[in-house]
Amino acid sequence: MFKPSKILIPTDMSDHADKAIRQGFEIASQFGSEVFVLHVVQDHVTQCTVDYCIDVKLADELQKQVMEGAREGIRKQVERLVGEDAAKATLDVKDGVPYDMILKEAEERAADLIVISSLGTTGLGKYLIGSVARHVLLGAKCSVLLVR
Which domain holds residue 123? Predict the structure, then answer.
């Protein structure tokens, strides 16, 4: 029988991701698994546009605030959904391409299960699988549970 010891739950903080978080924590409680919740910030603060630039220090400070805001957002999301069990999870925020960072995190954490929502913030439709979930399914070296 499959008994995951380390579960990675990526979140984009959408309602769809709420379902994956609940499911991942439910599995973790059944098997005493370690839980990692990951949010990936894809859009970086741009220092220059076509007609103006901002100071490098300001751009760095804004990016730092984006990352801290995301960290606070996933903390609140997990606490709202799983209550006191949230303290048992490791929460992390990375920047980059979401599916690349999810796969990298799964490998670095030696996750044996990824619990991910089949749809993300775009919610393109009831019958489509999200592109991040599709890439994770194709690239994962561990089991992946898609949550609808």
Answer: 6-147
Please check whether residue 1 lies inside any domain of the structure: no
**3-class DSSP assignment, residue 6:** strand
Residue with tokens 């990375």: 94
Q: CA-to-CA distance for 88 and 127, rounded, in angstroms?
A: 34
**Each residue's pLDDT tens digit, 93-125:** 999 999 999 999 999 999 999 999 987 655 444
State pTM to two decimals.
0.89
CA distances from 102 to 29, 58, 77, 84, 130 (A): 22, 28, 18, 25, 14
Please report, for the domain that includes residue 79, its CATH number: 3.40.50.620
DSSP secondary structure, 94-131, as one string: EES-HHHHHHHHHHHTT-SEEEEESS-TT---TT---H
**What's the structural domain count of the chain?**
1
CA 17 to chain centre: 8
Judge whether 90 and 25 are in contact, CB under 8 Å. Answer: no
Instruction: Report how far residue 73's alpha carbon sits from residue 53's, in angstroms, rounded to the nearest whole number.
Output: 29
